[in-house]
Amino acid sequence: MTRSPEILLKGCAHLGEKTLFKHLELQVKAGEWTALLGPSGSGKSTLLRLIAGLATAAEFDGQIQTDDQQSLIGRIGYMAQQDLLLEWAKISDNVTLGSRLRGEIWPSERRDKIIEAVGLSDKADKLPSELSGGQRQRVALARTLLEDKPVILLDEPFSALDARTRADMQDLAASQLAGRTVLLVTHDPGEAVRLCRNIYLLQNEKLVKATPLAPPFPKPLDDSKALALQAKLLMQIRAGA
Amino acid sequence: MNSAFRSGIAAMLGLIILWQIVVTLTGVPRFILPSPYLVLVSFIENRGLIFEHTLVTLTEVILGLFIGIALGMITALQFEISPTAKFFLKPVLIFSQAIPVFALAPVLTLWLGYGMISKVTMAVLIIYFPVTSAFHDGLTRTPPGLIDLAKVMQAKPLRFLFLIKLPAAVPNLLSGIRLAAVYAPIGAVIGEWVGSSQGLGYLMLLANGRVKTDLMFAALFTLGFMSMSLYGLITVWIKLSFKRFETH
User: Fold this and answer.
1) How far is A139 from chain B, CA to nearest CA, in Å?
2) How many Cα atoms occupy the beta-carbon half-sphere of B149 within 13 Å?
3) A154-212 tens-digit pLDDT
4) Mean pLDDT value across residues A21-44
5) Are the CB atoms for B19 and B36 separated by under 8 Å?
């Protein structure tokens, strides 16, 4: 993996007549987790898709910069709310999808090591349909890890999981993705405070930065400061609605 | 035995009984409507002849299926690979459907002769469109999430087509193939009616001309049985071999 860059997004976006956000400045710090919190329809997924270079329905007027002045193309790993596994392909083939799509070869020891790290060694030859929802999302994480990109964009990847699996996945992702520039889009303040050094709240066309907690991350589930911040953020979201 | 199969058998038996009742009650002459019993007798007496002609029709149908499905798949993939091909060929393909394939049968016989080739071509023509359009439909409906993933991963276009779009379109292709299994025998038999010296369609015309109505019915039922078996076999094959491609 190359050095993780910092990302700065500045600009406005419109969805037809509606303004999604204006004069917004989002700073995704190098090598740290940043959360983008907000209610549904606030435009947080649009922001992530803009950084990922994916098509959006919104019209964006602004710029996306990195601190090393290099393009983000080819430096991004992406996880969505759906695991996006190929139902017809074995787990091991799903994990190596990126290399296969680019026609590259991959070291099979590295693939096996990553599958082991997410705890699925015994499932490598199975089909996705034979796995539980949590296991499937772990395959998606393994696929992202094998890509070994310095920037990771997470679009609510844990929100479809049950509470226990979600907490497990958060810990696993936090340990495996440490040191990369991570942007996590979520509607769950609890998830944001547990995992992220920097927290932005996108609401009513504006971006508000929350006072950050001191490392280390992820926070224990019963960390009192994290719980207090979670409550504060939730109250802020409710007040803004 | 599944319930659809059982109800199918029951319906068939019911119809045969009804048929026998109609023949007995009305006393209709046997050259107009022979009884099911006479049809069975004719079938047993002419089994060698019927088998011979069935083999011909079956060969035409299977060749037609293979070629038609292959051509349909290649066309649909070509549409995805080259927008220019799609731009020029898709309207032509749709327009060609405005001409009934039946109307082409005499021309095909004129061009390709009385032999098997004109019948195989009829079968190919009749299944080409359903296969192409079903498969192409599937290729254009790749789940958006997979398109996003491939874009972020910087997929090469051809690899994206063969690793993601094609497998994701397999369920659509399979429904096209199931349709083709139903249509292909129709094409082959139409070809035989227009001009041939072999096949079940030929045998039916021949028996009809000689007022051997019982033999005509025997050939007709053999054709029906052949088509249903083919459809059944393809359905079972699809169920067993392509389970993993079903969407969840």
Assistant:
1) 14
2) 30
3) 999 998 888 888 999 999 999 999 999 999 999 999 999 999 999 999 988 889 998 88
4) 90
5) yes
Domain boundaries, chain A: 7-75+149-240, 86-148
- Which of A88, A101, A129 minimises the CB distance to B153? A101
- Per-window interface: A 105-144 vs B, CB < 8 A: 127-129
- Look at chain A and count its residues: 241
Nearest CB among B145, B170, B244 relative to A82 is that of: B145
- Nearest-neighbour CA in chain B from A53: distance (Å): 8
In a domain, B32, yes or no: no
Q: What is the pTM of this model?
A: 0.87
Which two tokens mark B44? 């047993």
- Cβ atoms within 10 A of the Cβ of A237, count? 17
So what's the pLDDT on residue A18?
A: 86
Residues whose CB is less than 8 angstroms from the CB of residue B170 and which lie 6 or more positions away in sequence, other chains included: A88, B138, B242, B245
Query: What's the domain range around B127?
Result: 41-245
Q: Tell whether domain A7-75+149-240 is in CATH 2.40.50.140.
A: no
Which residue in the block uniquely carries the two structure tokens 């995704």? A28
Q: What percent of chain A has pLDDT over 90?
A: 69
